[in-house]
Fold each of these.
Amino acid sequence: MSTLALAFDLGGTELRGALVERSGDVVARVSAPTMAGAGAEAVIGQIIALADRLLNEHPQARVIGIGACAPGPLDPKAGIVIGPPTLAGWHNVPLIDILSRQFGLPVRLENDANAAALGEWRFGAGRGAGSLVFVTVSTGIGGGVVADGHIYHGRRGLAAEIGHMTITGEGDRCFCGNVGCFEAVASGTALGRRATRLTAPGDGSLLRRLSGDGDVSARHVVEAARAGDAAARELIEAEARWLGIGFTNLLHLYSPDLIVMGGGLSNGFDLLAPGIRATVEQRAMQAYRDVPIVPAELGDRAGLVGAASLILWEGEPGTALAMGQDEETKNGAGGQSGVREASHG
Ligand SMILES: [Zn+2]
């Protein structure tokens, strides 16, 4: 068996573990509901139990290290989980120290959005790009930036908190306390809230029928829009405009080779893409308008394979292949422009 990394993706609801190859292939996967209210010690116990299970089931595996990702804020260099809002009792937990002592292996830690960005860049929709911005749109909005072949960290690894850039002066208050955050107006939660306000229980609308007369979610809006529902289509149009405004800011700030959109709302990417593209073309300066905006390819394993690559690809910014593809794109032979569908395989 080839060289492997143990990978963990510590989420507020699910804890995932995997054995990952250098190619990004997942050899084995395990998961458990995170004991998010039980404190750091209990959850670290869960991580150790999942690791033991993977190692026992694959005794021949040559594991050379552990790559882990967790919600921010965290300090990747110091290896400290600072205090994610979704995990009770985690305050400045030295996760790298704890896991390396337990297993006697090198451990690397990254914020989950950054790890997913790395995953999509090395193995997914961003393969071959020199720079990319990964945006995850679901309950909130998170992101990671790969700039010139490296994750852009900033002070204490806290860069690219793109959900909290201000993009308007109005709307609902964000959980961070501000008004007008990208996340507060463009997340899946915000879309669901707009749909809920637009309709009423028992009004017979498709949105309320899909939600069983409960609160309407972003998933219901996408489903209704696919069925041709006019109200849902308008909601999608407005959502695409907000995303397009946020993405325009990201283009101007980071000048990526592409933007990769993941998260739950990327299930409706094909519906949103024309509106996103139209907004970018309207608002971005000329030089930024043709940057591809594409859906993520790796789904919920992006964080795992990205975290694994911290170990398996350590010290390697990109690959020869990546540089080659970059040349191709630059010469116009890559054919990457505008919004394209995910290309698998
Ligand atoms: Zn905010």
Note: Residues 164, 174, 176, 178, 181, 183-184 surround zinc ion (CB under 6 Å).
Amino acid sequence: MGTPTAETQKALSGLEAGMAWSLDELKRLVRIPGVSFDGFDAGILRDSASATAEHMYACGLKNVEVIQFGDVHPYVFAEWMEHPDLPTVLLYAHHDVQPPGSEAGWLSKPFDPVERNGRLFGRGTADDKVGIIAHTAAVAAYLKTIGRLPVNVKILIEGEEETGSAHLAEFVRRHKEKLRADCMILTDCSNIDTGIPSITTSLRGIVSVDVELKALPRPVHSGFWGGVVPDPAVALSKLLSKVTDDDGRILIPGILDDVRPLSAGEIAEYSSLDLERIVRAGTGLPDHLPLLGRPEDLARRLWREPSLSVLALQSGTRQMVANIIQHAAWARVSIRIVPDMRPDRVQKALGDFLKAQCPPGFEVEITPDAAADWWTVQNPSDPVYEIAARALEKGYGQKARFIGCGASIPFVQPLTSELGGIPAVLLGVEDPYSNPHSDNESLHLGDFRKILQSQVHMLGALAGYRRA
Ligand SMILES: [Zn+2]
């Protein structure tokens, strides 16, 4: 694995000495409930940005700025650029969080971080306030021990990731020079399992459409008219059942035509993962309910094939059930898309299919909703991936795995392409038990230490990086 340089060694001891402080700083950030969704107080995100900026200043970073841009939730930027001849690495994380959801599901208050069973619970502990600390703790470890970083660093902390980074591409266009870097490290992804460091090399995109079926001008008595009047709720259920087969495969003609097959390397890498165990652990799916797809296909189906979900389904309400035939039924249907599918084409194909398969006579309305592109590593042989894998192996004491991710991070594509196609390394410290976006979100505290150590190794090794 190679031994760390004396400087990295000093930084590692500095990191250890500052570990309790880093954890306290994480907790301080978690206590600020900066939710970027509509209907939440935008002022709290400004507080969260200032607290992040203060933290960066305390770590020894320079040119710390809270950047307000229109009424977009503020970004925080900082840098340390003292080596004209060495590469520059752009570090990304986000300071906004998801809403807490229903507090009834939480065992402790969402914005009051609590340590339990070796984990830190609280909204944002894993997604993504730990991402901020992973970068800054490594920076502080160097600056506080040897007074300099091994490489130039820029840090960008976004404030609207959880609502889809709608303004990020424009932000990057406006601040291209400020953000220019040789490579980028993002800490907003997951490890395949607790203690197993992972580099995410592909993300799925997503498209969705709303479908509404109408039959009558208003709901009517199911006793008087049932038996002769068609029911939109039944019709919508039948329609939705036509989009996938019993195994969950999408039946829209031609939908799989653009799907890029896995490379031989990916097949080999993924075949050694025990994905069934990870899926069951991560979702709570009981053993008596079989997974969709054969065991050998799980990686492909999770990361590199499209999957369809009905996100919401409504006809009447559960609170006010009456003996009536509903006049309309509505659903939002999404497809996670993969390389090389085209979001616009898939969205249209989904809408057209629903329209064409609708039982005759119903009025059907299709409304396109979100569309976000997939992402994949452009050049897997860029040396930054080898550097990252070795740094993670040193930090975790476990070989790094290259994995896919079935979720979407819409900003990765625009961010990297605006910056000239620089390579992006997607890391994270979430594990299958972190429950991000849901109740009882948590961070494994052992992995907290390990990602911080990895980042110290990473900054050290990046000094020798040259883009392929
Ligand atoms: Zn996130």
Note: The longest strand covers residues 205-214.
Amino acid sequence: MVKDIEGSYRDSVATISKEGKRNFINPKKPKGRLYNLRTAFSIFYLVVFFTIPFIKVHGEPLLMLNVLERKFIIFGMVFWPQDFFIFGIAMLTFFVFVILFTVVFGRIFCGWACPQTIFMEMVFRKIEYWIDGDAAKQKLLKEMPWNAEKARKRILKFMVFFSISFILANFFLAYLISMDKLLQYIKTPSEHIGTLISLSIFTSVFFFVYWWFREQACLVVCPYGRLQGVLLDSNSILVAYDHVRGEPRNKHAKKGEEHGDCIDCHACVRVCPTGIDIRNGTQLECVNCTACIDACDAIMTGLHKPTGLVRYASENSIKEGKRLIFTRRIKAYTGVLTALLALLVFLLVSREDLDARLMRTSGMAYSTLPDGRIANLYNLKLANKTHEDIPFTLKLENANGEIEYVGSADMLVKKEDYSHLQFFVKLKPADVKGWKTLLKIGMYEKGKKIKTMTAKFIGPETYR
Ligand code: SF4
Ligand code: SF4
């Protein structure tokens, strides 16, 4: 709960009315240095977002997160379920990084780089200002009875929002299944009903979020937003109101009493997309969009006072004039992050391009052939993580035996694909060293050994 200037406590969120209905926020269009910087950054961000699905490395997408097929390509490197532990470590590293970053820099990510904020504030909201006008005009339009102007604006906004949601859904799907596949599926929609259904669902979700749900995604759904309460401390840098300089507010100071720099103009509240008053302190609803900084800076400039009454600052720096402190918590997070990064680099560097799992076929004992030789049946599963086909041959390395393939064994693992084959290993009794003999099987590509696999060969005890 946040204490306001009158001493009462805010016990509700600005976006929900006393009756429990949705209060739709119409923030005033922000203007200023930080808004311009965020606009420039978001243009760069959007160019990158819409370009990545078209970039290929060795004929494969630069980034693809195919959850259904459990195939992930990150910066051209293919990750299969066998690499799941690398993926897990990468995710863990990412989460620790996010935690560490949040402890120090608060929600700077939310304001500058979160896709929800970028699309909401820098795409859909700008279009809304363009069609409906600024906050006051939006409210007028909402309250006016239906007429030709209102219908025209609503239809136009609906069409533009829906079209962008549809484009977004396509790109979102391209990140999941690759742009090539998406284009191929779109050309033959009747054969790919699943793709059409996915596109319809994604489009509807995006449209719902940007047309109606808006800031509720940050307030209610986003787990990162909900975590702020445990991640932030009084040394975290946030968008904050300098209450030492601002209070008592001009309007609230008694006659003749000295007052702070805040003139209680509410400019910072009017621009807030989550409807809060930053002067009430750090609040979970604040997405650090910086709109209130720009609004207050404009007021301070007009009053010929220094800017920065609302600025990026930590609670302690405002209260005690302290600089950022490298706390024990930050040191601990840094240590864990460094260890995880080192492990991740090691796993990536030592990752094998061809994953081979050789196992004796379970549930089958050895068999004795009419010529006296002993045979064991093996299963070999291969995963080719490279962008080239790998033809191969197998050779016994430490025994004079024979390898006989079951069926028409395909001695090739296609690029980024799996292969599975079965084969018998037949050994003379002289080469069988009792119940368990350790076999070494070499895998060769064009005569060059690329892998040595080991497996157990079982035989009768009497041969020991
Ligand atoms: S309080 Fe300021 S930074 Fe936080 S969401 Fe509102 S306008 Fe953005
Ligand atoms: S914009 Fe600045 S001066 Fe105006 S109410 Fe907000 S903090 Fe006070």
Note: Residues 1-8 have pLDDT under 50 and may be disordered.
